[in-house]
Amino acid sequence: MNSYFNEEIETMERDGLDSLVEERIKYTIKYAYENSPFYRKWMDENQIKRSDIKSHEDLRELPIISGKTIREKQPPETSDFEFRSIDWDKVFTVHETSGTSGVPKTFFLTWDDWNRYAEKYARAFISQNFAPGDRVVVCASYGMNVGANTMTLAAQKIGVTIIPEGKCTFPVRIMKNYKPTGIVGSIFKLIHLAKRMEAEGISPHESSIQRLIAGGESFAEESRDYVEELWGVDVYNTYGSTEGTMCGECYKKLGLHVPEDLVHLDVYDPQLKNFVDDGECGRIVLTTLLPVGERTGTLLLNYDTEDTTVVVSRDKCPCGRTHMRIMNPEREAETFWIAGNPFNRVDVEQAVFQGENMDYLTGEYEAFLYGDEDEGEVTMRVSMECFHPDKCDHELIKDNFIDTFLKYKQGLAEAYYDGTFNLIFNFTGPGGLEFYRIKGRPRRIVDRR
Ligand SMILES: [Zn+2]
After folding, report:
1. How confident is the model over 75-110, as pLDDT tens digits?
2. How far is the CA of 300 from the centre of ligand 1 (A)?
3. How many angstroms does the Cα of residue 185 sit away from the middle of ligand 1?
4. Measured distance CA(232)–CA(255) in Å, rounded
5. What are the φ/ψ torsions at residue 207 (nearest 5 degrees)?
6. At 353, is the pLDDT very low, low, confident or very high (cuts 50, 70, 90)?
7. Are residues 174 and 239 in the same domain?
8. 154 CA to centre of ligand 1 in angstroms
9. Which of 209, 229, 390, 429 has minimal CB crowding within 10 Å?
10. Distance 255 CA to ligand 1 centre (A)
11. How many whole angstroms from 138 Cα to the centroid of ligand 1?
């Protein structure tokens, strides 16, 4: 089944798409110079003329900015918000995202920004075969985060009904009374909900749900497989942020489509000096693209998301869409180094969610890093939650974990076999992990070195 929200744009041939992107880059740079105090000052000081920036290669002439830059260019550091690029009377909503630093970054959205954000999700929903008549429970939180509201607005554009729960702990009667056909939530929320339904005698397989959308954090393919098995439906991935990414996987599940006409996504090397080739992993750097004549509240060019990904393809997808596809992004902040070798939280998750392990495990896990490389040893202690700790096959789980975790990490495997990297395992019963005692989103990997 092929249908589109914006067929002309979504299926545009590469040449046409590339010239559309260039036209929007030129207009966006002009808009930045005329409306953003930050960019006007920067271009004047660095003697970059806006006419010098015509293509995506030329974006390298502009600075790469980050959340830190935004915080440094807003009160109390500066007298005004230097990334605000529109008059106050055109600002529809104001958002703050605090991330890990605790100091919020401010974003200003106009009503047009909301509509462009929503269009990206509307395209994604349709590419996942949502259609009028669908009823979708949104478990993402409403408020300062734009995700839930953006999806709600997207639903309005395509005739889908939203049940705006805002969290996944809603009463199971919601499932019975409204027979939703889809749920938006994180992988772990979807696991918990399935368990809660089973406990109340409703099989997720026999429920009204026809497809699920996972978002909010990166996950391992194995944990997606597990959720698909629990529910008996497809789980589609989305990636979005207040900065305006909003990428979504189509029903073919061959990577997340980037709405290239509205957001330009470059993948940079770790030093943020140059682009990496397609197929290589690097940092996601975003540039908002404004359609000619349109306006925006906060303009970000070359914004370092601190997430990493790989471009899967810029060729036409079997779904008919031509926009590039990327792999599930991972957070740089969730990457850890042992003896010069990196691994991500998602690698640990993948090792936990190995097929047979899930006969015994709930999927909940946490890991702690200890030791001192200078003294020669680092230990990772992995705790996993079992349904029944006394009927849990510890040896099988350990073997599966070690095999999977070390499989494609030669350096780590060497450190493991020569004894400079230790893995120890701990199994708990339900509710026994340390993160349960701390409020907020679980910290799955804690570096105590
Ligand atoms: Zn596709």
Report:
1. 999 999 999 999 999 999 999 987 666 789 999 999
2. 27
3. 21
4. 21
5. -75, 180
6. very high
7. yes
8. 19
9. 390
10. 8
11. 23
